[in-house]
Amino acid sequence: MWRAGVGDLVAERYELEMSVARGATSHVWKAHDRVADRQVAIKFLIPDQQPQAHPLAFLKREVQALRRLQHPHIIRVVDAKLSHTPPFLVMEFVEGMTLSLLLKQRSFVKRPLDLDTVAQLAIQIGEACAYAHGQGVIHRDLKPQNIIIVERAGVFFAKVVDFGVSRLVHRPGDVHDDTTSGRVYGTIHYMAPERIRNEPQTHQVDVFALATLIFELLTGYRCFVRSDGQPVLAFSAPVPKNENGLYDVFRRIVREERVDPTSLRADTPADWAEVILRGLDTDPARRPEIGELMQPFRTYRALRRVREANHLNWDLVLDDLPELDALPRSETPARPRTPAEPSSSEDPDGPRPLPGLRTPKEVS
């Protein structure tokens, strides 16, 4: 039976360098692509799991999903060999950490993510989901472990990964959807109520998962897990086998039991809390669309830019104004005037700002 090892050459092209992650059915390695001379990530199915049909079906589904998607915040597929022993998928290699690990690090130092970073990541992940939905792909397993974060000079960049349990819609030849077999796959902390009940699923299952994920980004706590009535840190993955067991988590999700994020983080903007709670609605028809869910976070970042421009320079504001040469002009030539004669455009109360331009006092 074949076992991956450092230095192994796969498909006469990919030289394995180090193990990156291992799950129940797959093993991810960092490798060097000798043909393209670049670093890649290879996801192998674990040989012991080969007799089971589901892991191979999930890998095939992930290949189909990623081949539809070309987005800066979605991992990019490079190659795939489903007939290889074992089957594998090759993706771009991203040097970073999972969002789950980032939350864990911030918890240890008691320093939550600042609001601007929360808004930035919410927008990036939301844009990736909105794009995927437009291409007929529903992720269905959004969670911190499936978000890779790259940090450069304090700026965070997110990549959505692992489309193995995604649902592909409106395309011929797609893999059989597991919802028709009576099985539900995913991570319970982020499952929408309709997924738990095995009801028809739309892109709104991703809206629910994204709202849950943003709740954790913002507060640092799980949305639906409690321990002795108290919230549990977001990176605590296992479900306790007492009052917080599987049934209790499901019960909190399918019922109208929601925690206002402002109760866990006092500086939460009111419109953030409102849209997060709407995203967590048990009825998918009442949840906002992805764009509406992202809007408060876009507004927050836009207003911050304006405030920064107010204190630093006006270039960002002036860039949004029309060119002076494009402004409408009078067709009648202006009559020359004497120095003592005021212009008809002058105002006795002082100069007026250009249309659309607010003064620093008005901005602040």
What does this structure look like?
The protein is an alpha+beta fold and 364 residues long. 32% of the residues lie in helices and 18% in strands. It contains ten helices and 13 strands. The strands form four sheets. It has a six-stranded antiparallel beta sheet with strand order 1-2-3-4-6-5, covered by helices on one side. A hairpin with a 3-residue loop joins strand 2 (14-22) and strand 3 (26-33). Helix 3 (115-134) packs antiparallel against helix 5 (204-219), helix 3 (115-134) crosses helix 8 and helix 7 packs antiparallel against helix 8 (290-311). It is globular, with a radius of gyration of 26 Å. It starts with 8 loop residues before the first strand and ends with a helix. Residues 172-176, 324-335, 341-348 and 350-364 have low confidence and may be disordered.
Mean pLDDT: 80
- What proportion of the residues is helical, as a percent range? 25-40%
Overall geometry: globular
* Largest sheet, spatial ordering of strands: 1-2-3-4-6-5
Distance between the termini: 68 Å
Beta strand count: 13
